[in-house]
Design a protein that fits this description.
The protein is mainly α. The chain contains three helices and two strands.
Length: 86
């Protein structure tokens, strides 16, 4: 989660630097990339807040017949272990 927050701040920071024409690029390219970096930073921040930052850890669960994140699978395994103990 820390890495995800860092990357959101990184993308938004680069967008600000591009908008301020910090890098030696033509003005139209600088603004184009500023908008792209800002849009991707906002999108990535939204995914971070929503909890969809799976980073390739989603797998298809045959029992549930749906894709589950790694955290969801761990939670399900803990619940199954509690049921077996009882």
């Amino acid at each position: 989660m820390g890495f995800g927050i860092f990357m959101v701040l990184f993308y938004l920071g680069v967008a600000v630097l591009l908008a301020l024409n910090f890098f030696p690029l033509p003005k139209y390219l600088s603004w184009f990339f500023a908008v792209m970096f800002a849009a991707y930073g906002i999108f990535r921040g939204y995914r971070e807040v929503k909890g969809e930052h799976t980073y390739g850890m989603r797998r298809y669960d045959d029992d549930e017949e749906q894709y589950m994140t790694y955290a969801e699978r761990l939670k399900k395994m803990e619940e199954d272990n509690k049921d077996e103990k009882n």
